[in-house]
């Protein structure tokens, strides 16, 4: 891949083609030249009851107002370039902040949880998640009419036949990085064939968006590596992959609709829906703006096996408890095979596109090597552990379903190393019932980065699982494969939860009754948890593995998360953010689901009084201690129980020689503290319990 840095200059790549003038009467300049009253009317139209302006629209309105006000004052004021630059920076910052809900006192670590804390520590800690916590009222309002429902209503109503245009565009997102079984890509290709025009694939980078959404450098690197493979594969089908970059995420709908599509002469845009609240709002804005500008935007379900909203209780209500939801999910899939139907590979463009003046240049668009702010110096090693491309994902899946587990595979090594022994009976999936809770081997599939980025689809994965059972989807705790299918269904479940109760992706606990649990503000503890120096070997091993691989086994995600929340009593949202910033498989729905489960605030959470004993968990999930020995080399010579709890199993002079820290909290005391704070929400215990 070429060494290329993406700049925040919005025109740096997207306008590789000189934009064609939009053919509709609603050109950008027309709307910019609107009178103030027209803008006010538009604002009023947006704000009429039941049709609240979303962030994107508000931004849009305010931009128009700013344009008008600037025009009015243009004669009076001649700006100096430095003043203009400063103003632009301020506006840019304001714009990004505008996207964030206000931090409400009393519900945030600043105003509520850390009420008893003082000084600058408090500010810094709160700052880390400031802007990510909506007020209870905002969250409740969003839940009342979730953006998913709004988007579906838009899709059902108001579609009109637009002109054919010169091309059809498929806008690929960072959650659907594949060609096979890609609904929007296939539908776009069908439309292009119907019109006899070329199909263009588009990818829009937004470093600003990645920053706001805590994307990890490993994840961005993984996206770039996969895009590079896709570019080659798409070119084989004569489909160019056009890339653009806009730092300011809130501008993306407008840029796509009013700049990129006109430049491509496209009147039809196809996208797969992403279910996070900001992404849904972006798509709502894109559809609405598209309609203003004569572009038909088709938003399609693709990400999950069963789209949100399809599983309801007998009373027709959405379900928030996993077990009954899961049974309904499995039943639906066995009764309605349509959910497994995969989209064929799209038909390519005619070879002549490569000599077409309008489109041939798009084949020169390149995938950058890195994105500024998300450089991944360890890319080479990470790409060995997480090789890119759908073919590699399929190979991983094959190995999981047909080969035996290997102890060495928890290390920093390629999952496709030779030496995996084929066995149907003792395959990893057949041993999954026990294996899934063990960390000292490759007991699970390791597909999460691929599923999170859509390099392989949930349908493709479950289809292979079905083949092992003669076409029937086995689901349940009795067999390895049934257990694994259940695990895969968590992915659908948490996305259903997020689409139905968007509050969970707005920093709110699903169970508001725990909103005011009192959290500790302890920068040092938080940092030691991140660094893997807590003195609890299993937590430290997991956190160090996370830093190196960008990934942890499910059991240690639960153990490490529980340690932060219940043992250190640190706000779960700080842990949620750190996992997102570190994981190669970072996925809002799954990550938030995992954290809220652990923090006992989620839809179907671990009861607050059930608190993991870190040492017992360690003995169960790493019985030989091999995982700890590898990831915490200070302990590599320890044997027996000492590997799980060296401080309490070694003479103090011997322990000191290890160069390994003492435990930062006492399990018994911290457990009592957590129980007190959860039982007495809003209160703190007496000092003798505080650590
Ligand atoms: C605190 C916490 C944070 C988490 N953060 C993420 C995250 O950011 N991204 C992510 O993909 N998973 C997350 N998980 C879920 C789970 O830990 C990982 O999906 C799993 O460990 C990935 O390993 P695997 O691919 O080998 O999974 P397997 O056990 O082989 O499962 C197959 C697939 O099913 C899905 N899956 C399995 N368990 C879950 C689950 N509990 N929730 C949602 N999907 C699941 C994943 O797509 C996974 O790849 C989190 C769990 C916890 C407790």
From TrEMBL:
Entry-linked PROSITE patterns: DNA_PHOTOLYASES_1_2, PHR_CRY_ALPHA_BETA
Region: Disordered, residue numbers: 1-125
A biological-process GO annotation: nucleobase-containing compound metabolic process
Keywords: Chromophore, FAD, Flavoprotein
Presence of keyword Flavoprotein: yes
Cofactor section: (6R)-5,10-methylene-5,6,7,8-tetrahydrofolate; FAD
Domain annotation Photolyase/cryptochrome alpha/beta: ranges: 167-305
Sites where the protein binds FAD: 432, 444-448, 484, 487-494, 585-587
Site (Electron transfer via tryptophanyl radical): 519, 572, 595
Compositionally skewed regions (Polar residues) per UniProt: 1-15
Protein name: Photolyase/cryptochrome alpha/beta domain-containing protein
């Amino acid at each position: 891949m070429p060494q290329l840095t993406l700049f925040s200059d919005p025109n740096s790549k997207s306008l590789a083609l000189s934009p064609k003038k939009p053919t509709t009467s609603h050109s950008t300049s027309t709307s910019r030249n609107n009178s103030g009253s027209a803008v006010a009317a538009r604002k009023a139209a947006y704000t009429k009851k039941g049709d609240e302006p979303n962030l994107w629209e508000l931004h849009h309105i305010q931009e128009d107002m700013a344009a008008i006000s600037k025009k009015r004052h243009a004669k009076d004021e001649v700006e100096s370039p430095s003043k203009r630059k400063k103003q632009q920076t301020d506006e840019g910052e304001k714009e990004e902040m505008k996207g964030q809900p206000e931090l409400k006192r009393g519900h945030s670590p600043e105003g509520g949880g850390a009420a008893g804390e003082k000084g600058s520590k408090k500010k810094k800690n709160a700052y880390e998640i400031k802007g990510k916590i909506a007020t209870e009222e905002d969250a409740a309002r969003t839940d009342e009419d979730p953006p998913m429902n709004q988007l579906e209503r838009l899709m059902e109503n108001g579609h009109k036949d637009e002109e054919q245009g010169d091309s059809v565009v498929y806008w690929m997102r960072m959650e659907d990085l594949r060609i096979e079984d890609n609904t929007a890509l296939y539908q776009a290709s069908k439309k292009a064939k119907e019109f006899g025009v070329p199909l263009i694939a588009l990818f829009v980078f937004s470093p600003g968006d990645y920053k706001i959404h805590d994307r990890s450098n490993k994840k961005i690197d993984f996206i770039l590596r996969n895009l590079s493979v896709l570019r080659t594969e798409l070119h084989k089908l004569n489909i160019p992959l056009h890339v653009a970059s806009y730092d300011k995420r809130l501008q993306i709908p407008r840029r796509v609709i009013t700049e990129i599509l006109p430049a491509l002469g496209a009147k039809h845009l196809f996208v797969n829906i992403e279910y996070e609240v900001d992404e849904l709002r972006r798509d709502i804005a894109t559809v609405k703006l598209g309609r203003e500008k004569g572009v038909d935007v088709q938003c399609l379900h693709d990400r999950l096996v069963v789209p949100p909203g399809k599983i309801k209780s007998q009373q027709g209500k959405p379900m928030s408890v996993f077990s009954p939801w899961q049974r309904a999910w499995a039943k639906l899939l066995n009764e309605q095979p349509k959910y497994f139907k995969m989209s064929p590979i799209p038909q390519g463009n005619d070879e002549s596109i490569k000599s077409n003046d309008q489109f041939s240049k798009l084949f020169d668009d390149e995938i950058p090597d890195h994105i500024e702010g998300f450089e991944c110096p360890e890319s080479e090693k990470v790409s060995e552990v997480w090789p890119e491309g759908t073919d590699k994902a399929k190979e991983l899946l094959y190995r999981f379903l047909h080969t035996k587990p290997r102890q060495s595979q928890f290390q920093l090594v390629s999952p496709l190393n030779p030496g995996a022994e084929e066995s149907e009976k003792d395959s990893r999936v057949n041993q999954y019932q026990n294996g899934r809770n063990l960390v000292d081997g490759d007991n699970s599939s390791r597909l999460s980065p691929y599923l999170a980025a859509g390099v392989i689809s949930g349908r493709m994965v479950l289809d292979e699982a079905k083949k092992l059972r003669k076409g029937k989807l086995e689901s349940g705790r009795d067999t390895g494969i049934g257990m694994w299918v259940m695990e895969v269904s968590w992915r659908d479940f948490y996305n259903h939860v997020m689409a139905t109760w968007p509050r969970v992706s707005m920093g709110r606990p699903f169970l508001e009754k725990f909103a005011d649990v009192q959290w500790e503000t302890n920068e040092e503890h938080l940092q030691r948890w991140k660094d893997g120096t807590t003195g609890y070997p299993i937590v430290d091993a997991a956190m160090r593995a996370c830093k190196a691989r960008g990934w942890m086994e499910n059991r240690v995600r639960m153990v490490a998360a529980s340690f932060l929340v219940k043992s250190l009593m640190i706000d779960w949202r700080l842990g949620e953010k750190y996992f997102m910033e570190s994981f190669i498989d970072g996925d809002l729905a799954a990550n938030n689901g995992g954290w809220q489960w652990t923090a006992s605030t989620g839809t179907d959470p671990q009861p607050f009084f059930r608190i993991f004993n870190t040492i017992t968990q360690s003995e169960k999930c790493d019985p030989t201690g091999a995982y700890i020995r590898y990831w915490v080399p200070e302990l590599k010579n320890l044997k027996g129980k000492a590997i799980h709890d060296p401080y309490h199993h070694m003479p103090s002079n011997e322990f000191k020689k290890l160069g390994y820290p003492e435990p930062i909290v006492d399990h018994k005391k911290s457990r009592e503290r957590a129980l007190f704070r959860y039982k007495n929400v809003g209160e703190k215990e007496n000092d003798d319990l505080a650590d």
